[in-house]
Amino acid sequence: MHVYIGGAHNGKRDYVKKMLAEQGKENVQWIEGNRLGDSPLVSTEAIQTTVIAGVEKWLAETNLSEQAAIDYVMNCIVKGRHTVFILTDIGRGIVPMDADQRKLRDACGRLYHRLMAEADEVTRIWYGLAKTLKKRGEQQ
Questions:
Q1: CA angle, corner 31, sides to 128 and 62, nearest 5?
Q2: pLDDT(79) > 60
Q3: Model pLDDT, residue 22
Q4: CA distance linking residue 35 with residue 55, whole number of Å
Q5: Closest-CA residue to 86 (of 130, 140, 48, 44)
Q6: What is the pTM of this model?
Q7: Helices in the chain by DSSP H: which ranges?
Q8: Which residue of 8, 86, 99, 125 pairs with 53 in a disulfide if CB–CB is 3.0 to 4.6 A?
Q9: Which tops the pLDDT comparison, 8 or 41?
Q10: pLDDT recorded at residue 27
Q11: Check: CATH 3.40.50.300 for 2-135?
């Protein structure tokens, strides 16, 4: 699994699309976070990669408890298939005034922590520039 994280509108999706094209990955299933609960993962061998983006939008709208939502997202990682998460960093040390926004920021933080712990690779995209933060088997 590969996680890409960065601020809003920092070029994460464009970077991933270009990277997948360069790797010759043609059969890619894209799931936008606000459709995560509505878009079943296609279980076909033709799909090489599943890209899940905008999880924070789904997390803001779901009626699931925080733990159930985290479990749901973690179950989207299909064993034997390359899974890519594109995450928007909504924290950056700023504590929102609104209680619901604080709750969302904290839930995203816990979910992102789980995803990054499981990831083989983590890349931060900042204004289109990529920096590898984690690569399994390499010391950072």
A1: 110
A2: yes
A3: 93
A4: 9
A5: 130
A6: 0.86
A7: 12-22, 55-61, 66-74, 99-118
A8: 86
A9: 8
A10: 85
A11: yes
